[in-house]
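User: For a reading group we're discussing how well predicted structures match intuition. Take Carbohydrate kinase. Before you show the prediction, I'll give you the sequence so everyone sees exactly what went in.
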Amino acid sequence: MILCCGEALIDMLPRETGTGEQAFAPYAGGAVFNTAIALGRLGAPSGYLGGLSQDLFGQILAEALAASQVDYSLCPRSSRPTTLAFVTLTNGQAQYAFYDENTAGRMLSEPELPDLGLGTEALFFGGISLVSEPQANSYATLCAGAGDRVVMIDPNIRPGFITDETAYRARLARMLSRADIVKLSDEDMDWLGTDPGTLLREGTAVVLVTRGAEGVDVVTREGETRVPARKVEVVDTVGAGDTFNAGFLAGLHRAGLLTRPALAAAWGTDLAKAADLGVRAAAVTVSRAGANPPWEAEL
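Assistant: Thanks. Here is the predicted 3D structure of Carbohydrate kinase, as structure tokens, for the group to look at:
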């Protein structure tokens, strides 16, 4: 199982009722949640780990995971509320109001971390769950104890969410030092003050650098390969990066490369094939509204 560890939340999106009243509609979301959903739909053995509420919104999240064949049996369940993100549009630009204090996800503590068992072959971390404590520290502990499992990290840094930059930088540095796969954008690298060469020298096996409409660079110690993006009519880009992450991991799983020794010895062409699956899956996601990753049959 590829276990995606991080945030799941409810996006409250602005809508208008049949009588013209302004309202909000709940949609399951969250970067790590989206990656787990996309993995399940692509036919990979997908699992999700995060604090899940027993409330109405937690049930929506659980049902969405189950519908996409994602195992969430390792999730601690609690009576704490679900994280909500209310979205408003100003001149077409989205603004977010987060309600995250004392929520089931944010309050995930180290004692609640489950025994991963032999069935977990890889761990994925990322998103805003690496910012807010105590959950961020819990995921860092899980990452440090990954053992021989493959670890992928997509920090997807959002400076506006960071309240303790010193602690966040230190925690992220520890996690990146353990990562086998790291996905970064130019903005991520600028904020971190790093580059693929530095990460590779520090032990990362594969660095994925996203280039938007140009595609993605797959960088290893042996060299660099550009995997071009697909040309599609873009509806929105919500969930595109999350879907790419899932496609890459699913591609590694299909090729038998989801072990640390296999990943370290992988040919660039094999890694490029995995990245191409991520690119193709992401192209479907951006062609329709919201974070709605494709099923395997759609590819």
